[in-house]
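From the methods appendix. Each design record in this collection lists the tokenized structure first, followed by the designed amino acid sequence. Records were kept in a plain field format so they could be parsed without special tools. The example shown here is representative of the layout used throughout.

RECORD:
FOLD TOKENS (529 positions):
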């Protein structure tokens, strides 16, 4: 009987229906994020929700969620009553352009996306799954940092993720998209991954926020200046890609994945080449005829060589004196490293060396052949560079090229002077096939500086020093800097017409496709960090 004295109605649902109702209720609560108000606030901030992001990134109907019903184990500060939905992160596996990947998407609407132990272990599980299955892992980061209510357990959770980032490094590609705040310890996981994407205006990364900076140093700054997308793509080099919107970010991630293999045991998939592998270029002939002192953007050369003149540039805004990125050559994925004469005359400095080294390391780890385009006057001089460690940090690019065992094809376009000639995948550090344009100059230093040293007394006694200097410079180039001198010693395999660069390079990579190279048996080298 009920309180009114009437017989109680029996629940007519079958046990199965009751179980389903409970399941549906649990799912609805876990999938509801932080609730309508917080989800609306996320939208008002110009950001998508965690689940909307996954819907846009992965193929339709391909996402399989893992650990939807996981909850925090912490009870302090009322966490046992709050039951944060899915503990603030959506995890699982899916397909992107038909390829399996593991993904996680942090939910800022749930306790600011803060990371507690259960949240961290959900991420760790999909990272372990990615390694076991040999597939890329993609993290969509939108978190206020460690969950203070969980104390040291949240810090332990971060460390578990960091450890897995390192173990997966070089085994499966790791991609991070920072789509909101990323502060404190949270920044180190993206920094340990292979590529970092940021969205202009909504993404921020920093160790300490503006208020802490002001209290500690007296410096005044805002979120954008301290850790916005422009700051990290142009100044610090933390971000490899900047997107105009989250939609654009996911488009770029899909494009990047197209150049990469699933793991280190595989090679990138090839596509049907729609461009003639024998195509020659009058544009390259014109560039080769430019005055040696005249600047040009090396992107022009890269596009003339690439299939369909398509170049997917990496680290576009950072250290612009060196250019890195991906192209296809006769349908095959190839990494490009090129000096850019339009910035600092193409000279190597600290940032360019580290940028190039990181890219070379990535390509070598994932079996992506390397094309090196050389137009380098040397290392950039100055107190700032020397005091900043150009000797130690500049050696990173040298180390990376020496260690790389993937097929390496090099083309000296115009100048290759001093130690920078050696560093840029020269024959001496085991470039496999090395070409040079007829206008190339390969020497210890440029003709002007060399003549001033070698013929100092003669120039001092000359009636017309400038005229004599020009004559001696021409003689120096012919005698010491000509590509034919390098070719005579076998350091250049062939001096080629600039217009034939694309077919020559494609032929070289086709020959090198079966290259096998073994490193010395050792635990690991000691890169000059």
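DESIGN:
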């Amino acid at each position: 009987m009920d309180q009114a004295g009437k017989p109680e109605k029996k629940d007519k649902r079958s046990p199965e229906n009751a179980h389903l109702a409970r399941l549906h209720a649990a799912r609805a609560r876990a999938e509801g994020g932080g609730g309508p108000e917080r989800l609306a606030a996320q939208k008002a901030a110009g950001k998508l929700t965690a689940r909307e992001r996954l819907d846009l990134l992965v193929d339709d109907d391909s996402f399989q969620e893992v650990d939807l019903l996981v909850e925090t184990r912490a009870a302090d500060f009322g966490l046992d009553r709050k039951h944060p939905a899915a503990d603030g992160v959506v995890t699982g596996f899916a397909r992107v352009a038909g390829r399996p990947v593991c993904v996680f998407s942090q939910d800022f609407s749930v306790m600011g996306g803060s990371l507690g132990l259960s949240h961290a272990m959900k991420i760790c599980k999909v990272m372990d799954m990615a390694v076991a299955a040999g597939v890329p892992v993609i993290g969509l980061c939108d978190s206020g940092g460690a969950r203070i209510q969980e104390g040291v357990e949240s810090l332990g959770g971060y460390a578990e993720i960091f450890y897995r980032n390192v173990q997966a490094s070089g085994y499966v590609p790791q991609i991070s998209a920072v789509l909101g705040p990323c502060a404190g310890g949270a920044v180190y996981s993206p920094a340990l991954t292979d590529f970092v994407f940021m969205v202009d205006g909504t993404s921020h990364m920093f160790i300490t926020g503006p208020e802490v900076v002001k209290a500690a140093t007296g410096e005044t700054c805002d979120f954008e200046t301290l850790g916005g997308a422009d700051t990290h793509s142009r100044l610090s080099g933390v971000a490899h890609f900047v997107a105009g919107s989250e939609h654009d970010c996911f488009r770029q991630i899909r494009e990047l994945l197209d150049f990469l293999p699933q793991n280190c045991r595989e090679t990138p998939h090839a596509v049907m080449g729609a461009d003639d592998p024998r195509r020659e270029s009058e544009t390259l002939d014109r560039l080769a005829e430019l005055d040696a002192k005249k600047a040009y953007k090396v992107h022009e050369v890269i596009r003339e060589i690439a299939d369909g003149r398509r170049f997917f540039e990496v680290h576009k805004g950072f250290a612009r004196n060196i250019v890195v990125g991906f192209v296809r050559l006769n349908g095959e994925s190839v990494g490009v490293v090129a000096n850019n004469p339009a910035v600092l005359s193409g000279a190597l400095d600290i940032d360019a060396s580290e940028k190039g080294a990181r890219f070379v390391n990535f390509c070598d780890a994932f079996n992506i052949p390397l094309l090196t385009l050389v137009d380098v006057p040397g290392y950039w001089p100055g107190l700032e560079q020397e005091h900043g460690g150009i000797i130690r940090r500049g050696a990173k690019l040298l180390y990376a090229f020496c260690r790389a065992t993937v097929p390496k094809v090099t083309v000296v376009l115009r100048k290759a002077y001093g130690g920078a000639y050696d560093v840029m995948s020269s024959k001496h550090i085991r470039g496999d096939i090395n070409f040079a344009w007829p206008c190339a100059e390969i020497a210890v230093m440029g003709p002007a500086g060399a003549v001033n040293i070698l013929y100092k007394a003669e120039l001092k006694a000359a009636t017309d020093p400038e005229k004599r200097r020009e004559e001696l410079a021409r003689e120096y180039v012919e005698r010491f800097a000509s590509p034919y001198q390098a070719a005579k010693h076998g350091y250049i395999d062939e001096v080629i017409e600039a217009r034939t660069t694309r077919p020559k390079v494609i032929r070289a990579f086709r020959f090198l496709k079966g290259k096998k190279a073994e490193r010395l048996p050792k635990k690991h080298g000691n890169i000059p960090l």
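APPENDIX NOTE: The mean pLDDT is 92.
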